[in-house]
Write a structure and sequence with these properties.
Blueprint (H helix, E strand, L loop, with lengths): L2 H23 L8 H27 L5 H24 L5 H23 L8 H23 L5 H29 L2 H5 L2
């Protein structure tokens, strides 16, 4: 297993660790723990950096593999979806945004499965990367802002996060539509 693939797998391993701290943070409750929110933000940031590094190293050193093309987007989906689920629980993200994110990810996974039947591997496109970066920046903002906000800043953090989540929903919907349109010929070939 090459270095980019190891970084991708590290991101997968960090998902449950992030989830533990995100769950323990309990934002918006009397039991809110800023330290756990900060640790969740740090873990998410480290995992997000591995996303940039694995792709950069793979392209620079010609280490792009089918495994990486498959696992890198899957690792991103696991990480960001887990974070958005906790943000819905915390009341700063609409379930509609989460539904859009999940629908897009299932639709893309379906297209990739159809492509795999023909031996085709579809890498993430630019719009998917823009969507992922926006989602990651929103999540990083939320966990760090929640950890660093004072008692009077909670409303501002929540409001900004809600707006950012809706922007993520719009970007996710747009990238999903573009992805499905670009790969529409696979539906024509499917038996």
């Amino acid at each position: 297993m090459n270095l980019p693939n190891k970084l991708t797998m590290m991101r997968v391993v960090l998902v449950p660790v992030f989830m533990v701290f995100a769950a323990l943070a309990k934002y918006g409750t009397a039991d809110f723990n800023a330290t756990f929110s900060l640790v969740a933000g740090i873990i998410f940031t480290v995992a997000s950096i591995t996303d940039f590094l694995d792709g950069y190293i793979a392209r620079k050193n010609h280490l792009v593999t089918d495994f990486g093309k498959f696992m890198d987007p899957l690792a991103d989906k696991c990480l960001t979806t887990a974070a958005f689920i906790y943000m819905v629980v915390d009341g700063v993200c609409s379930p509609i945004v989460l539904a859009v994110i999940l629908f897009r990810e299932f639709a893309v996974a379906g297209v990739r499965m159809i492509a795999a039947e023909t031996g085709t591997v579809i890498a993430a496109n630019m719009w998917g990367k823009v969507k992922t970066v926006l989602q990651m920046l929103t999540i990083i903002f939320y966990y760090f802002a929640a950890a660093l906000a004072g008692p009077t800043d909670v409303g501002v953090v929540s409001l900004v996060t809600v707006v950012l989540c809706w922007l993520c929903g719009a970007a996710t919907l747009l990238s999903g539509c573009i992805y499905l349109w670009q790969n529409r010929q696979l539906f024509m070939q499917a038996k």
